[in-house]
Amino acid sequence: MLKERIVEIQKEYFYKDVTKDINFRIEQLSNLKNAIKKHEDELIKALFIDLNKSEFESYATEIGLLYEEIEYFIKNIRKISKVKKVKTSKVHYPSDSYIMYEPKGVVYIISPWNYPVQLLLMPLIGSIAAGNCNVLKPSEKTPHVADVLEKIINNYFKNEYIYLVRGDRELSNTLLRKSFDHIFFTGSQSVGKHVMKLASENLVPLTLELGGKSPCIVDETANIQIAAKRIVWGKTLNAGQTCVAPDYVYVHKSVKSKLIEEISNFTLKIFGNDMTQNSEYPKIVNDSHFDRLINLLEEGRILFGGNYNKDNLKIGFTLIDKVDWNSSIMDSEVFGPLLPIIEYEDINKIIENLKRKDSPLALYLFTNSKLHEDFVLDSLSFGGGCINDTVSHVSNNNLPFGGVGKSGMGKYHGQSTFYALSNEKIIMKKSTKIDPSLKYHPYTNNKIKILRKLIK
User: Fold this and answer.
1) Which of 98, 128, 153, 342 has the fewest Cβ atoms within 10 Å of its own Cβ atom?
2) Which positions fall inside the Aldehyde dehydrogenase domain (predicted)?
3) Domains of the chain: which residue ranges?
4) Which of these, 50, 49, 47, lies nearest to 59 by C-alpha position?
5) Which residues are catalytic?
């Protein structure tokens, strides 16, 4: 079958060097953009069916970002891929040193269900720009989106260049044991470990975009009204099914009541009394994820929200108090619209506590104190984040996106994807017009004196 032989087929195509041509890459990027545009309405409809995403949210968080990324590479690919000259030590005079960027070969891109369009095609765009062939595996949990993506990829590109495969876990495991040149995986930490284990059988390099418990800190100097609005926005995007959503809030004791009041009022204002009946509010992807989240509602004390509807798989944004690090809701990433809120008095104590937790994918700090800002940024390790906002850093393709430690390895977006999916081939070109005898035997005392002068 084609899907079982696709890696070998694409490697043979890659060896023809067609994909290395910059004009070819630009042409394929334009082809992808045109294909997305032709099927844009279908994608939006499919996102609504699978996740109940509104047209605005689908365009803002999925499709629009892809157009922006494609245009970035079309405009900048010649500059990014250009041979880069670097300095050479005096020891090697006369010579020149430079870096060439070559495609890795055949890349396997595996995407999750929460942003099924963006998280499959965003790494593909950078991989096309880098000159690779690509095998794509969308999530089967969003089947209507996968239907449209299959049309976009397999009808507009040669199979030997870009091919979308669909199948169960068994097919995925079979492909993971193939000799890809790079695997790009976005998903949970548990599945990421499995992917890494199978990839290690062939020493295939990986980019892992995972997740974790991303904290949000609101200190006593913050603009509470703005903080409330931006926390609600970041947590209700895709009903909280976002790897960089604020997972919990640390709020200073002096402003906790005000923050709860502002969050509650703003949520009611924009969603109404029952979010589960709001037509533009996304749903939970399936029954098992819904049931997992409902069980977490038993944690702590509900301050706001708590309503849910099994018929349409919707859970309203919910603030939960009276939880700590011994609560099960704090064991792993919530990945839903439930937001634990924990008060603090001394920022030093919570920073010392967070230092000992796994490094998160994101961190958000609401403050007007430069002292607190510098302290938090200097003290904690995390993939990326925002000061006085949530989630927005992901949409800037000039910023590398990715995790650290258990929240992921490798960065992408913009030129970072190009570098992640390229091999840096380093070259030193030495002159043959002269050939200093310094490095050759015999190593006399005089030579060591010269070497010491050159290298201090």
Assistant:
1) 98
2) 22-425
3) 2-210+407-425, 215-402
4) 47
5) 209, 243
